[in-house]
Amino acid sequence: MMNTRKIAITVILTALCIGTNYALLPFFNVKFMDFIVFVGGFCFGPLVGGLVGVFSWGIYGSINPLGFSLPVWVSTMVGEAFFGVSGGLMKFFVFRKNSRIDNGKLGAAVLFAVSSLFLTLAYDLFTNLAYAYTYGINFIVAIVVGFVPFGILHLLSNAVFFGIGCVPAINIISKVTGGEKAVSSEK
User: Fold this and answer.
1) Exposed, middle or buried, 20 (CB in 10 Å: 0-12/13-18/19+)?
2) How far apart are CA 183 and CA 144, in angstroms?
3) Confidence category of residue 50, pLDDT binned at 50, 70, 90
4) DSSP states of 40-77 as a string?
5) Proportion of the chain above pLDDT 70, given as a percent
6) What is the DSSP letter of 98?
7) Which site in 71, 73, 79, 183 is 20 to 30 Å from 123, CA atoms measured?
8) What contacts 17, CB < 8 A, 6 or more positions away?
9) CA dist., res. 36 & res. 70, Å (int)
10) pLDDT of res. 23
11) Per-residue exposure over 90-115, b if at least 16 CB sit within 10 Å of its own CB, e if not
């Protein structure tokens, strides 16, 4: 159920995603959007995370300086929502609501970094396939040409952002919103 607080959080996180995407426009495939959407899902649930993903790409993709393509736009919205939903599900299944994890900060950081690799790989494959279908390019060629230079950079940057940023961002958001720390700060 969406209340006024969750609607406001969704709008703020969406604006943060769009703003950081434009700020990092010169750095192709290095963006904070996936990280913000994932953390939003982790902190506020899969519905909020999924909506932040859809709205972020819905707005950014429709006024994207690199151009617009309806099938690619839809695939990026669905793919981005997957980050938010996954963040919410990770909290529910791995960390449990308002619990601290036993393996501390380093273990959680590694878990977030590794999770980002799988999520980013799935996102890149999905959107590259949509791109190939839209423009009539061979699927293998689209994946190799699209993934090798850009996907690897996307994977590595997300692993760094998630590994370094998730624990402090989740704990700060939890503290500011009146919740208990979800991830231990201890080493």
Assistant:
1) middle
2) 37
3) very high
4) HHHHH-HHHHHHHHHHHHHHHHHT-TT---HHHHHHHH
5) 90
6) T
7) 183
8) 32, 33, 36, 37, 52, 56, 60
9) 24
10) 94
11) bbeeebeeeeebeeebeebbebbbeb
Query: In this predicted structure, which of 1-5, 55-59, 172-176 has the lowest mean pLDDT?
Result: 1-5
What dotted CATH number matches 4-176?
A: 1.10.1760.20
What is the average per-residue pLDDT within 168-178? 87
Residues 6+ apart with CB under 8 A from 164: 109
Q: Provide the total of helices (H) and of strands (E) in the chain, helices listed first.
A: 7, 0
Please state, in angstroms and as integers, the Cα–Cα distance from residue 39 to each residue in 32, 46, 57, 70, 139, following that order: 11, 10, 16, 27, 31
pLDDT tens across 97-137, in order? Answer: 544 454 467 888 999 999 999 999 999 999 989 989 999 99
Average pLDDT taken over every residue of the chain: 88
Copy the structure tokens of residue 101: 């994890």
The pLDDT score that the predictor gives to residue 186 is 54
- Sequence spans of domains, the chain: 4-176
